[in-house]
Design a protein that fits this description.
The complex is a heterodimer of chains A (about 110) and B (about 110).
Chain A (H helix, E strand, L loop, with lengths): L3 E4 L2 E5 L4 E7 L6 E7 L6 E7 L4 E4 L2 E6 L4 E6 L8 E7 L9 E2 L3 E6 L1
Parallel strand pairs in A: 2-11
Antiparallel strand pairs in A: 1-3, 3-8, 4-5, 4-9, 6-7, 7-8, 9-10, 9-11
Chain B lengths: L4 E3 L2 E4 L5 E6 L6 E7 L5 E8 L2 E4 L8 E4 L6 E5 L8 E8 L7 E2 L3 E5 L1
Parallel strand pairs in B: 2-11
Antiparallel strand pairs in B: 1-3, 3-8, 4-5, 4-9, 5-6, 7-8, 9-10, 9-11
Amino acid sequence: GENVEQHPSTLSVQEGDSAVIKCTYSDSASNYFPWYKQELGKGPQLIIDIRSNVGEKKDQRIAVTLNKTAKHFSLHITETQPEDSAVYFCAASSNSGYSTLTFGKGTMLLVSP
Amino acid sequence: NAGVMQNPRHLVRRRGQEARLRCSPMKGHSHVYWYRQLPEEGLKFMVYLQKENIIDESGMPKERFSAEFPKEGPSILRIQQVVRGDSAAYFCASSRGGADTQYFGPGTRLTVL
């Protein structure tokens, strides 16, 4: 089955800096890659997703890049703010008919003012 | 437009009791997924259901766990004879179609004493 590795497990940055979180996956059939943000005591919230027919997608301060050859994808957050502090999860699925997501173990991002 | 709803938000059970977790999908969504999150871990897929059908239960423990999504009413995840190892956060997600974006509920945090 699919296996998703996520790094780093914790990331501390200063407000205004950029943050990058990286994930690798094992199943070459995977073609859908969402990113979720989870705040303490809450459910995961989708922040951006990418499908395998594109290499990059941006939404304001957030971008995701995908390298299907190397089987890795990354989340980039620019101009970080304290409210970006949360746990971020990457996920992958094969999306063939239906998608059951395989998640990475998460990255705790701490943005200091 | 209400999001995915889960109840109860917190559930405490003693070993050997039964736990029932409920999930109401977003309006217009007929696909439900259940995931379990252990402390310091990512989310693990348990089961995928459509109305009145279990489509994929490959992540569900073989014993004590069952799930349903009846024609009317919420999806139910049922854990019989709970053990301490069942303590976790249980999240439900819903989607419009099988390959569409999954939106998560706030979760039920189960504590087994």
